[in-house]
Amino acid sequence: MSNKTSSTPSLTMSLEFKYLNVAIVRSSFNESITNRLLNGAKREFDIAKDYSMKHLEGAQSSFYVCDVFDVPGVFEVPYMVNQILNHGIAKYNGILTIGAVIKGETAHFEYISGATINALQILNISSPVPVSLGILTTQNEEQANERSKDDRSNKGAQAMLALLSIVASRSSHPGFNPQPPVRGSDDG
Known about the structure:
This protein is of the alpha/beta class.
């Protein structure tokens, strides 16, 4: 029995956005895994976009943008998130991070995953823009493959859903409702 996301209703379908601009910062290391995480995240974004455009009067494709920034490894993810926060803060409602750190035979796994997640936590709590964690830290490649399948267990999709939930919650409070960013043309 298939458990594909496309055959199972997404929780994203209940979230409506007048506009939605998300940055995804993806580590290209362990690329086959991070590609699947990215696909899961983009699928959830597209579900939210399609649902909102169908149910909100005046919604346009250009109001929903998902930009992807690739970096070499997870250690570089916080740097790029910081750059986006410092130079593009008015542009994005939220930032999603994607990566995969797989334990090897040395302490490298602990240093990289610990430093990266600590840096992202600091950026998240010190920024008005939410940062969602979609970085896998697994004991082996099998666990990473399990968490990046094309189904409801995809952690990229789950991290995007968490981000969208936070963005929706913020949007429901008047003090957190910024204006949509200005874009030149319909990118969609």
